Amino acid sequence: MSEVAHPSNPSPEPPRNRIRSVIVALVGAQVAIGAALMAIDLSQNWGARDPLTSPLPAGPATRPYSPDRRPGTAPGVPAPQGPMPERLELGGEGADLTLTGQIAVGDAARITEELRRRAATGQSIETVALDSTGGSVSDALEIGQVLRDSGIATRVGDGAICLSACPYLFAGGTAREVSANGKLGVHQHSFGTSAILPAFMAVESVQRGQAQVMAYLIAMGIDPAVMEPAMRTPPDQIYLLSQDELKSFGFVQE
């Protein structure tokens, strides 16, 4: 886990204190998340707005988000658009594998089996290139762990995106690269919680999910402080990490 030293505090904060500080910051957001889950579920019944045609929220790093579409890049700037596959599609050749689309439930088992099949036939994968709007958090964590155990690197290439749950998959790479024209973004997750549940039960479910994600990020060498911009970005928006943030949070090396 990378440590970020501030000029006023030249010595990095001890890891345990660092983690405790992040956890304390996250706890205050849990009730708001439970309420947001209910609002999102209700909005689906009333008809969701198109996030790509709605006004951009304030702040250059935040964009409207929908899992089946690519987000806009900036006001007035054309960007690749169109539907994303409903589950990860495999491509590439040789030692390079590409994963494109949403991360669907069951993708972890399917991709793990494909990696094993290729290894058994002497076609071991060295690098996985990602272009995904995210999806199932649990499947992303499982795929990321398999990539780490298999010694496979990850990459987000020119014009590609890695959003929502995808950065967890990306974090599993033994070496990680994000192109200058690639985008990696984070936001809140629902972890499959139904807004019909009482708010305190939704919050408890979210807390368990966040604890699992934080433990995974720490194991992968990612600063759990990345959860701060994630937790303050609603599910219908995405926070795009800058190149400096990618380095400071440990997603890529200096």
List how many beta strands DSSP finds: 9
Give the structural class.
Answer: alpha/beta
Order of helices and strands: HHEEEHEHEEHEEHHEH
The separation of the N and C termini measures 14 Å
Count every helix, treating DSSP H or I runs of 4 or more residues as helices. Answer: 8
Instruction: Report the sheet with the most strands, covering strand number, pairing sense and barrel closure.
Output: 5 strands, mixed
Strand fraction band? 15-25%
Envelope shape: globular
Low-confidence stretches: 1-11, 37-59, 73-79
**What would the average pLDDT be, to the nearest integer?**
78
The order of strands across the largest sheet is: 2-3-4-5-7
Helical coverage, percent range: 25-40%
Over the alpha carbons, how many angstroms does the gyration radius reach?
A: 18 Å
Topology at a glance:
Blueprint: H1 15-27, H2 30-46, E1 62-64, E2 89-91, E3 96-103, H3 107-120, E4 127-135, H4 137-150, E5 153-156, E6 161-163, H5 166-171, E7 176-178, E8 183-186, H6 199-219, H7 227-231, E9 237-240, H8 243-248
Parallel strand pairs: 3-4, 4-5, 5-7, 6-8
Antiparallel strand pairs: 1-9, 2-3, 8-9
Helix pairs in contact: 2-6, 3-4
Protein traits:
single chain, 254 residues, alpha/beta, five-stranded mixed beta sheet, four-stranded mixed beta sheet, 9 strands, 38% helix
